[in-house]
Amino acid sequence: MGGCSAPNCSNSTTIGKQLFRFPKDPERMRKWVINCRRDFVPTPCSRLCQDHFEESQFEEIARSPAGGRKLKPNAIPTLFDVPDPPSPISAALPPLKAEPAEKEQTLVDHGYARRQPRGGEADEAEAGGQRNEEEIACRLCQQYKAQLEQQQQHTARLQREAEEMKKKLNKLNKIEKGLQMFLFDDQIRALTLAKRSRRAVWSQETVLTARRIRGAVGVKGYEFLRELGYPLPSYRTLCNRVEPKMMGPPAMEEEVAAI
């Protein structure tokens, strides 16, 4: 599941290598980091594989619950593929004095009895830590999956809304083109204003057309068209927009009088 943190080492559990967690004791952890020849701060996920420990650093009898070898409580890694590797532990150890077999057996028995619980607790803690990491990773995976599904649903909803808006826009464009066939632009803009609060600005073309309509249908017909919502200037606007320079003396005066 994990990989070795040592420089120039790519071993992992996937190829059958056993990994060991960095010690929690600050002094032992510092020795491990120094021997690694790597400038970093170990995390709870940092590991070193079995290839970096001398044979003398493993328990001879005790095994982990998973069946792997166990490190001694004071084990130090010394085997690294670096330019300035640390000195081997076996060469630095002084020769042991010969002692009576009975005393040696007693020390070995007591030492094994004392160290075994510590090793078992360390393995249990390591296994528990791995289980916690897997549980956290699974929870995060489920959380991200749910967020992704929500985002996909939101995106699909926005796409549907965009398609509906595009259809409405095309429909409005067609309506506008149809209106442009018999209405001026200022008349089309007037259609968007409230019926009783229109403040439209009428062009000269619209005013002239409105005068012709009024002359054709009369005052009542003209006002009836305005009540139906047809965009036409009011009678007052028609009177105010009549320019004297456009009027011929007899004919236009009669037309204005008729208005």
From TrEMBL:
Which Pfam families does the record match to this protein? THAP
Which GO CC terms are listed, alphabetically?
A: nucleoplasm; nucleus
List, in alphabetical order, the GO biological process terms annotated in this UniProt record: endothelial cell proliferation; regulation of transcription by RNA polymerase II
Question: What SMART domains is this protein classified in?
Answer: DM3, THAP
Q: Which family does it belong to?
A: Belongs to the THAP1 family.
Q: What are the subcellular locations of this protein?
A: Nucleus, Nucleoplasm
Enumerate the UniProt keywords alphabetically: Cell cycle, Coiled coil, DNA-binding, Metal-binding, Nucleus, Transcription, Transcription regulation, Zinc, Zinc-finger
Low complexity: bias regions: 89-98
Matching Gene3D superfamilies:
THAP domain
Report the coiled-coil segments: 141-178
* Role, per record: DNA-binding transcription regulator that regulates endothelial cell proliferation and G1/S cell-cycle progression. Specifically binds the 5'-[AT]NTNN[GT]GGCA[AGT]-3' core DNA sequence and acts by modulating expression of pRB-E2F cell-cycle target genes.
Annotated source species: Lepisosteus oculatus (Spotted gar)
Spans traversing the lipid bilayer: none
| N-terminal signal peptide | none
Which Gene Ontology terms cover its molecular function?
DNA-binding transcription factor activity; RNA polymerase II cis-regulatory region sequence-specific DNA binding; zinc ion binding
Full protein name:
THAP domain-containing protein 1
Residues of the region (Disordered) are: 81-104
Domain THAP-type spans what residues? Answer: 1-80
